[in-house]
Amino acid sequence: MNRILSQGYKPKKGRGDDILYCRDESAMGTHFTRTVCLTAQQIKQRTQDSREITDKLETNGGLKSGH
Which terminus of the chain has fewer Cβ atoms in its 10 Å neighbourhood, N or C? Predict the structure, then answer.
């Protein structure tokens, strides 16, 4: 839970007994922000997916161009 809060998420009551964690995120290439709310499990999955992508890029020597 502390890791989620350290990433800038703030707890918010969702539907029923659900607790959502929300934070403002910048839209890529703009100055606009949007509020993103996720469950703790969704945040953990996002983090795991990001790590897997990073590991794949490092294993493959980074992004390769079409040359």
Answer: C
